[in-house]
Amino acid sequence: MTTSMHLASQLAVNVLDARSLLTAFGVLGVGVVLFAETGLLIGFFLPGDSLLFTAGLLATGSASGTVHLSLGPLLISAAVGALAGAQCGYLIGRRAGGSLLARSRSQRLHEGAKRAEELLERYGFAKAIVLARFIPVVRTVLNPLAGVLEVPVRTFTLWQVVGGLVWSVGVTLAGYALGSSIPNVDRYLLPLVALIVVVSLIPLLAEVLRGRRAARAKGGSR
Question: Closest Cα partner for 164 from 114, 90, 96?
Fold first, then answer.
């Protein structure tokens, strides 16, 4: 009976809600979600930033409820999921080319691909691969796009590891540090997660503004 109830709760999980994912799948779910978000185009909608931050909060043990996560396994799962997902996405891009992205009807995904290509052109491979980790959707499409554009394997692997570790471990530890300093932090979980989502969108908005300014500058110089 207990097993069937646990299975039912897993099937009823809300994939857009970080706490729901953590309640259903725990530490292992963090790695799986990050792998899907960074390695598979269909995972572009998954809540990577908020999942990492929320998991870090819950790992402190100061939050009430049924979710209890261990920091060590959490950091390992997050890092492995983020790094393996990015490498998988790159390999898919190398083998499948742009056909997978071309078949997608998601406007958000295509916009992310455009931003990813702009990052690669503006900042070069190394900086773009690291920066993309902190931009939702862009971190999903940049990896296969790097494969399509035939970014050297060593270059991509080195910088995706650097960016992946800084992102996955850094955001998780940020949540852990905040949770350690605030008693009953789960009372403020929703506004904190909302804040993380807003902050994660800042780099994307900054790129949009820069692109518009550059377009205006080109138009004015003609």
Answer: 90
Buried b (16+ CB within 10 A) or exposed e, 149-159: bebeeeebbeb
Phi, psi of 83 (to 5 degrees): -75, -45
Report the half-sphere exposure of 36 (CA within 13 A, side-chain side): 15
CA atoms within 13 Å, Cβ hemisphere of 56? 27
Both tokens assigned to 117 = 């290509």
Q: What is the rounded CA–CA span in Å between residue 197 and residue 50?
A: 6
Using H for helix, E for strand and C for coil, what is the string for 24-56? Answer: HHHHHHHHHHHHHHHHCHHHCCCCHHHHHHHHH
Query: Is 50 exceeded by the pLDDT of residue 5?
Result: no
The percent of the chain in helix, strand and coil, each rounded to the nearest 5, is 80, 0, 20
150 vs 219: CA distance, rounded Å: 32
Residues in the chain: 222
Written as six digits, the tokens of 202 are 């800042």
> How far is residue 143's CA from residue 116's CA, in Å, rounded to a whole number?
9
The C-alpha R_g of the chain, in whole angstroms, comes to 18
Q: What is the pLDDT of residues 97-117, one digit of tens each?
A: 667 677 777 787 777 788 788
Identify the CA nearest to 136 among candidates 88, 189, 202: 202
pLDDT at 197 over 70: no
